[in-house]
Structures are given as structure tokens and as C-alpha cells.
Amino acid sequence: RPRIGVLALQGDVREHRTALSHFDVDVASVRTAEELAHVDGLVLPGGESSVIDKLSRLFGIAEPLSTAIGDGLPVFGTCAGLIMLARRLTDGIAGQQTFGGLDVTVQRNAFGSQTDSFETDVDVALLGAPPVHAVFIRAPLVTDVGPAVRVLGRLGDGRVVAVEDGNVIGTSFHPEVSGELRFHARFVERVHARAA
Ligand code: GLN
Predict the structure, then answer these.
(1) In terms of residue numbers, what domain contains 96?
(2) What is the pTM for the complete model shown?
(3) Which residue among 74, 90, 159, 189 is buried most deeply as judged by most CB within 10 Å?
(4) Domain count, the chain
(5) Exposed, middle or buried by CB within 10 Å (0-12, 13-18, 19+), for 38?
């Protein structure tokens, strides 16, 4: 069975492990380059991207992970995980870095303090019916997408909240907290395809 890692430096690691337990894969927590080398795909959880950034550099996994993503490792990031995958970041803390992987610009904490957190349904044509029940928690927005990026989901006003770029999927919201398994399913499909 393929082995899927969840980057376990900070954030909602447990929720992603639970979501992944519904699939025919082994699940492992990943904190080091050594552990990264043994997985066929990686989930980047929600949490606090500035902390994940700092810890990933401290643990020496930031650079090998960027390289692995560039080499085609399937990766799925939610919320802070999406931020970590953006090639360009606005409203990060001073010196904040990302792994890259998605040719997009992401604005951190894009919804401000008035609408810190909210839930709404998002139509994702790729996933069909029903719409995705999306939970946003101090969520980022995708404010610009490169030509090869596939937009998977938008808010009612057109703002982009889910994208796919080759081997990388990112969502502004948290499918792992609302029992939404279809993004994980697509990611797992990618992992199976690459491992085959
Ligand atoms: N605001 C957080 C950040 O900057 C993301 C929030 C989340 O993952 N729910 O990383």
C-alpha cells in the first residue's frame, strides 16, 4: 500500500490522519527529511503557517520538501498548508518563507477580524454534487493564479479558494474538519497513480 505522510510540525494533524484512515493507504507523521524520503505523498495540515515555516527550517525538512514537490511528489495542503505551497505570499510575517509548488499568490488572513471564521457551501465542478461544505478559519485566499493552475473552487463572489497545479492541491478551507473526503480521495488517487 502507498504510504502517505502528514507533516506533523504544528496544526490539525490528527484530523487529516483520521480523514486518510478511510482510504487504502498507510499513514505516517513526517517531521524529518529521513521520514519524508519514505512517503509517496504528503498532506500539509491547517494551523499557523509562520510556525510551520520556522519549524520546517529548524528541522531541516524545508529544502528537501521543496525539492520533492518539484520532483512530482503528490501534496495536498489545507489553509496554512495552502499558504506553505504558494510560490508567492502576501501578508506573511517578516521573513516568512514557503515551500512552493503552486504557481499562485496567496494572501494570508485574507478575511480580516470581522469574518475571522465562517462556513459556506462551495461548488467544485470537479467533485460534482453535493457542493463542498467549507469551513474557513482565519483563512487565506488565492489572489492570483498562473496559466497552468486549475481553479477548482470559488466563493459566490468569484474569489478563488481551491486550486490544483500538477501534483499539488490546495484549499483555503478545511475539508478535514467537516468530514469532506473528496479532496483527500483525489489526492490519494494521485498517490496511487504515481506509485503504480
Ligand atoms: N491564519 C493561519 C496562517 O496564517 C491559517 C489558519 C488555518 O490554517 N486555519 O497560517
Answers:
(1) 3-195
(2) 0.97
(3) 74
(4) 1
(5) exposed
